[in-house]
Design goal:
abc type-2 transporter like fold; four-stranded mixed beta sheet; 368 residues; 67% helix
Length: 368
């Protein structure tokens, strides 16, 4: 049985090698996608443009402007005399943030709390929120240093903060973990979905069916190339992420690899189901893209699961990508062990068994 499966898998690799365009897409495409996505995610938002309306023209107003300009997130590109000049800067998108320093700022600061206005461009919500937080933090830090922590009439407050797993709040590790899972998902789904569809389109499916293969052996042989290629891609891209971009794996890499194999097997079952119902490779590819859109919606890749309606939350459990994103983020970012990830591991095992049964039934109904 094993020898027959290996021979069929060898035949699949030969057919993949003959289709040079598909081979280049499968081998090089995922790595290029990872490099581009990681590069675009960056270490966070920086150098957002800001303008300062300095109506005080004092030493203190210049210090506040300098404090804002010294942040990594903001870069002051202009000093204006009046708020009336702001419209052109914000409407044309030349500035993400405007800081309005009122007249008599230095005098009012000595006797009270003058109002400093921050105006952000909300067209890009993430950039606008980042600019507001950076400017507020810079001004509050400057005030705290100037007053040396002593505010008349108020008791001193000792604030101590702690951020676990990602102390610098760097967005790259979080995005890279999701991108790694999503790219592996694409590879295994695409390769497994083309197996039987290619045979049907080339007219060789009948020859395969008359060979002494049981249906489960046929499915295993068609799934093996997807398993091998996706595993190789996972190892290569993990090395790129860790060695090239410095994103460490806090947990056990063997555990992550083992759970990745479960995820690949579950997605291969989805691909085989698509392959059995597709008459051409083009139809299989289109169905793969439709499934990807659905899977992204239900996986938490774009919208957190807990923000979905209850019905959609229940449906999300049948999609392997939802469980794998929790696994890869847990192992890479939190250092989670098998006990912490046991619910996701059991869910993937159940999806492998259920998907395999559906794939076998689909083969019997469509090919017999």
């Amino acid at each position: 049985m094993l020898n027959r499966i290996i021979n069929l898998a060898h035949k699949e690799f030969i057919q993949l090698a003959r289709d040079r365009a598909m081979l280049v897409f499968i081998l090089i495409g995922p790595i290029l996608e990872l490099l581009l996505l990681v590069q675009s995610s960056g270490d966070g938002i920086s150098n957002l443009t800001a303008v300062v309306v300095d109506q005080d023209r004092s030493q203190i107003s210049r210090q506040i402007g300098t404090a804002i300009d010294n942040t990594e997130e903001l870069r002051v590109i202009g000093y204006l005399d009046s708020p009336d000049q702001l419209a052109a800067w914000l409407d044309e998108g030349r500035a993400t943030l405007a800081v309005i320093l009122p007249p008599n700022l230095e005098a009012d600061l000595a006797v009270g709390a003058p109002q400093v206005q921050l105006i952000a461009d909300g067209a890009n919500t993430f950039a606008g929120a980042t600019a507001l937080n950076a400017a507020a933090g810079a001004i509050n830090t400057w005030v705290a240093r100037r007053s040396d922590g002593r505010v008349p009439g108020l008791a001193a407050i000792d604030l101590r903060t702690q951020v676990r797993y990602n102390p610098t709040l760097n967005t790259r590790p979080v995005s890279v973990a999701a991108q790694l899972g999503f790219i592996i998902y694409q590879v295994v789904l695409m390769v497994s979905a083309l197996g039987l569809a290619r045979e049907r389109e080339l007219g060789t499916l009948e020859q395969v069916l008359v060979t002494p293969f049981r249906r489960i052996e046929l499915l295993a042989g068609k799934a093996m190339p997807a398993l091998i290629l996706a595993t190789i891609h996972f190892v290569i891209m993990s090395a790129i992420v860790v060695g090239g971009y410095g994103v460490s794996v806090r947990g056990s890499f063997p555990l992550l690899l083992a759970l990745t194999l479960l995820f690949i097997a579950a997605e291969a079952c989805w691909g085989l189901i698509i392959s059995t119902v597709s008459r051409t490779q083009q139809q299989a590819v289109l169905l793969v893209f439709v499934l990807i859109l659905i899977d992204i919606s239900f996986s938490g890749y774009m919208v957190p699961i807990d923000r979905m309606p209850p019905v959609m939350q229940a449906l999300s459990f049948i999609f392997p990508l939802q469980h794998y994103l929790l696994i890869v983020r847990g192992v890479m970012l939190r250092g989670s062990d098998l006990a912490a990830l046991l619910p996701q591991a059991l869910a993937l095992i159940g999806l492998v068994i259920g998907g395999g049964i559906v794939a076998v039934i689909s083969v019997h109904n469509r090919l017999d």
